[in-house]
Amino acid sequence: MPLYYDDDQTMLADTASAFMAEEGSIKNQLRHWRDRNCKDGFGHALWKQFAEMGFTGMLVDEDDGGLGMGQVEANIVLEEIGRNLTPSPFLSSSVLAATALKHGSNDVKGRWLPDLLSGDKVYGVAIDEGRKHRPERIACKAEKSGNGFKLSGKKDFVVYGASSEMIVVAARTSGSDDDADGVTLFAVPQDASGMSHDSVRLVDSSMASHITFDGVELDGDAVIGEVDGGRDVLNAMLVAGRVGSAAEGVGVARGAMDMTVDYIKQRKQFGKIIGEFQALQHRASHLYSEVEIARAVTVKAAQLVDGGSEKADLMASVAKAKVAKVAGLAVREGVQMHGGIGMTDEYDIGLYMKRDRALQEFLGDQYYHAGRVAEMSGY
Amino acid sequence: MSDSDLEAFRAETRAWLEANCPPEMREPVRDEDDIYWGGRKATFKNDAQKAWFEVCRDKGYTVPAWPKEYGGAGLSPAEAKVLRQEMAAIGARPPLSSFGIWMLGPALLHFGTEGQKQRFLNEIARGEIRWCQGYSEPGSGSDLVSLQTFGEDKGDHWVVNGQKIWTSYADKADWIFCLVRTDKDNKYQGITFMLYDMASEGVSTKPILLISGSSPFCETFFDDVKVPKSYGEDIPAQVGEVNRGWDVAKYLLGHEREMISGADGGNTGTIGAALTRANGEIDPVLRAELAQFDVDALAYGAMGEKFLDEIKVGKAHPAQPNMMKYAGTELNKRRHELIMAAGGSHALEWESEETSGGKPSRNWLRTKANSIEGGTSEVMLNVISKRILDLPGA
Fold first, then answer.
1. Of B224, B48, B88, B382, whose CA–CA distance to A288 is shortest?
2. Does any CB of chain B come closer than 8 Å to the CB of residue A305?
3. CA nearest B305 in A: which residue?
4. Of residues A375, A378, A377, A334, the one with CA closest to residue A356
5. pTM for the full model?
6. In chain A, which residues have their Cβ closer than 8 Å to the Cβ of B270?
């Protein structure tokens, strides 16, 4: 498969780009909700529009009412989300939770998919249990209890957790914390008794929850996939989420870079347009090269996911690590080249820096993923 | 071509390579004389090298994608890719390396007359003439267009005077493709892209010893060299029009940059695993650097793949080779810094059996030229600023 978009994908990219620039713009969404101190951190009306566009069910099979598209298509939408800093549960709900539900029984799908597709509800995922992403270790426990399970433990960084009608929770049903086996995924409804949220606003003004499960009772039909055999589904979720988050990061990097290049073409100092200075030109050109490379490897990773390649896991980590580095460079150069104005809240460039910081941490930062690349390469 | 045709071609190619590529030619290149460059003065290192070259030449596999009438095999891009993949799978060495294949050939295919193609492309494909490139001059490196070597029009010939520098393997080359100023009043449209024999009277070369201790490069001097304007019917000595050689040079620099950048996938490998295996214990901070490098190398590999895919369908930005060259050469320099660091004192050995005569340190030093030759990294960044980012005054 060539590493560029085919005609359908190009059309989708044009549609998503126009839609997000119009409806999902920084002014209409991020600033709007942030300035109102919105408890959700995103707009439900926009989310309904996502559903009308078919975005919510891109990764849901056609038989289940979705569009049956792939990671490449989801990434196209995510890149535009990143570019416009559009706050939305797309990554957590339509990529991560949807990937989990794909592996659910018909009962599980029947219960949760319609509301996901219609945009009436959003879903979250609870994977991390500490301040850094370490999904190899799952300590949160689900013990057999009657016909179901009793869930205890804590989860961190549950994005839009308080707004999520259901949360996919990775818990341990057997074995010890570091075992690959013995992990089970559960669809935990928002109103489950014994579940408490501590919802906090993050630096990028998105919302995330610390969640405590205190003997939460779950029916057997809350299980997604196989009891004790949830690791494969979890890994599929992680790969989709990482590649998706890389795509959003590419969007953030491109948005910041475009804004910065545009700015240095306008701004005058010392009687010259500052974009004439070679010191800035070379840094901008270096940044351009890096962004192109980050984008290429993200498309590559998405294609490998769609092709079911065994290299998808490695390339997902390469993409996540590369994008994190490059998007970090893009936002730092962005703020610096904007000068003092870049430090003001009024200008958008700082918003890119904040979103990048949150995105880098989500599903593993560049250090975690470079480390995985080393391990998968055998050193 | 359908997928099944392509699979049939793959099976056929695999069988052909199995039958025709000698085992000795499936070993990695270790020394300069493992590479066959062709030309009048060429000798083969051994029978296997000779056999491999001749069988490829006869099948058009020295230049597989060139048309058959010019000595190629006329393969489609898809077929050429299959051949590359199958050769890579068995570790087959290129049967012939040459600036004629990499640089002059593409320029002739694009700009040459039919007579030039018939003669020169066939000679290149058959490895009969070894070419060198006369571009840089003392004082005209990055600012190539300021070159001073002058060809005076004498009616049926030119008389060329001047000096070139960094002419790779000029001392071993038979002919030169050379940029010569033919109009002193016109900077860009006063350069002619000329082809002439290095055995002509007045041509002399002198090797330049480099920090790596070797010398692929030469200084080349032209002292009243008489260059005929024609080598026969429809075979002018210049490529393109007189005074319009800059167009050819620019086209060709694009090819050179792709080559140096390793956009063909040759330079994108990871190194962490091999270096850790070969050198034993690695400091944790170095291990982290290796991991970061591998991330960058794999990402660059994807970029190379994307770049080639886009070139095939004309989607690549014309200045994209500059970006590939910049990123690729900087990456390659970093690669060799890490190889030196992981190798420790053993990698410092300039002359020892273990290092095959100082390979790690000589290669490390050689890579420092990557971001200078074929346009410096700074020039690449200038081009990106101007042609892609459209920055003012760039």
1. B382
2. no
3. A3
4. A334
5. 0.88
6. 377
**How far from B14 is each of B18, B74, B337, CA to CA, in Å?**
6, 18, 37
Three-class SS state of A123: strand
CA angle B205, B207, B208 (to 5 degrees): 130
Task: Tell me how far apart the alpha carbons of residues B187 and B48 are, in angstroms, rounded to a whole number.
Answer: 49
Distance separating alpha carbons of residues B282 and B5, to the nearest angstrom? 48
Residues 6+ apart with CB under 8 A from A18: none
pLDDT of residue B199: 97
The number of residues making up chain B comes to 394
Per-residue pLDDT reduced to its tens digit, A111-140: 999 999 999 999 999 999 999 999 999 999
Residue B219: closest CA among B200, B201, B202, B206? B206
pLDDT digits 0-9 by tens, A30-81 = 999 999 999 999 999 999 999 999 999 999 999 999 999 999 999 999 999 9
Contacting residues of A for B326, CB less than 8 Å apart: 285-286, 289
Q: With contact defined as beta carbons under 8 Å apart, do A192 and A215 qualify?
A: no
In one letter, which amino acid is B158? W
Angle at the Cα of B189 (from B186 to B195), degrees rounded to 5? 120
Nearest Cα neighbor of A245 from A150, A335, A359 is A359
CA dihedral A54, A57, A62, A65 (to 10 degrees): -90
Per-residue model confidence as pLDDT tens digits over A194-238: 999 999 999 999 999 999 999 999 999 999 999 999 999 999 999
Distance from CA of B53 to the nearest CA of A (A): 32
* Unique residue bearing structure tokens 């290796």: B290
Query: Within chain B, where are the H helices?
Result: 3-20, 47-59, 77-89, 99, 105-111, 114-116, 122-125, 245-261, 272-279, 284-312, 320-348, 359-367, 377-383
- CA geometry: angle A233, A235, A238, nearest 5 deg: 115
CA atoms within 13 A on the CB side of A7: 0
Q: Which strand (E) or helix (H) includes residue A357?
A: helix A349-361
**pLDDT of amino acid B139:** 87
Our CA-based measurement puts residue A4 at a distance from the nearest CA of chain B, in whole angstroms, of 7
